[in-house]
Amino acid sequence: MTVDPTASHSETPLARAFPTPGRLVQHAYRELSISANGTPEQRKALGDTRRLPRPWDPPTCTHPDLRLELWMWLDDAVTWINHEYVWDTDGFIPACWPEHPHLVHDLAVLADQRRRAGLAHTSDALEDWHRFALPTFLDRMAARLKSHCENGHEAWPAGSRHVRHTSDPHRRRRKLAYKNDSDLLSPTQEPVTLRPSTPCLTVVDGNAVDTDTGEILQ
Predict the structure, then answer these.
(1) For residues 84 and 18, what is the distance between their CA atoms, to the nearest angstrom?
(2) Structure pTM?
(3) For residue 42, which phi and psi values (nearest 5 degrees)?
(4) What residues does each domain of the chain span?
(5) What pLDDT digit, counting tens, does each position of 154-188 carry?
(6) How is residue 201 annotated by DSSP?
(7) Which of 19, 147, 172, 173 is most buried, with most CB under 10 Å away?
(8) Residue 210 in 3-state DSSP?
(9) What distance separates the 2 farthest-apart alpha carbons in the chain?
(10) Which residues are CB-neighbours of 133 under 8 A, at least 6 positions away?
């Protein structure tokens, strides 16, 4: 049978577009852009810009609808990365990524940087994402997960150590160490200079001079 090389074997495009965030996430990015590049009047209308939600840092997205929309966008981004960039199973982002805080934090930054690279007017940012951001993330993920969660989510191996770390005895021990260290930096009193009990005199031009006070004694 002769195969026509020009025939389409799939309806799947050769490269899929990076997922677009939802309306609320886009609004958050728009406000951040105004905060950075807007007029003084526009920035003033935003209020305290330090409180603006930053999608690359999920805990700052405190509105429930925005937070949910952010999770859905990151979920789409994970599916996109796994399909477009991961060939071997070792680099596959596990389906249980929401149960790994380190992956949640990393993926939020990774998705934000990919979004920005896609909006740039040159390919430089996207090349940096390909060369540094994505490989570094995948290497970091592999180093942390190792062989865990290959066949389903596994309990946190370091969970018992975290419980011990946050227990009252260990917490009190650390606080005591902090206090002892800070006490070493407490200001001390200036040294007091005591005058000699007997005058210290010298003779200058025939006059006795108290070298402590400068008084000329006849």
Answers:
(1) 10
(2) 0.77
(3) -65, -40
(4) 23-149
(5) 998 889 999 999 999 999 999 999 999 999 997 76
(6) E
(7) 19
(8) strand
(9) 130
(10) 110, 113, 114
